[in-house]
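Fold this sequence, please.
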Amino acid sequence: HSLDENVLLLFANHLIHLYRLNIVQDELTTPCRYPDSVWSEIEIILRENKRQWLIQMSTQGKCKCEPYWPGSPAPVRAIVYNTCSIKVDKTSIYTCMEQYKTTLETYAHLKSMCRVYVPRSFLERADTAYIGAVKTFRYLHTIAIKERISTATCLLIAYYGTRNNLKQFYLRRNCVILRNEYRKYLFNENGDN
């Protein structure tokens, strides 16, 4: 069954001891968009009862589409891609940055990409989106990256992460490109890579 807005409201009203809600999406999940009004209503109910939810969004199996993002007041704490069919998309990272900048604690791609084209150009990869995510998410303590990123991106993620709350930074063994592409693209300088 799908987790629709009525089921979420029933959970908020009647399940007193519900603390962690895992929303799992796989290839059999039917599309469901949650309106912002439902999450505002759930937030009011939880505040009245002095409770709090920790929501983890995850994609599993052969799922090839992005998660169906809950609206802005949803307390999403973790976003986990546990599938090898989805590549990192900059727009999904920017969506997370916009909606969950005050609540997100974990952002992870757990399986390596098999048979998915990963662009080689710096401007086509998600390097700048990862750096923006580490700078934007206040409570981000874990990030796992499985796609190719440059060495400068790794260093900037570590730098901005230590200034914020980042405690765990996971990289796939062969995903680091030994290039410094920031001078060329961000500062419009011509020099050695």
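The two ends are 52 Å apart (CA to CA). Confidence is low (pLDDT under 50) at residues 188-193.
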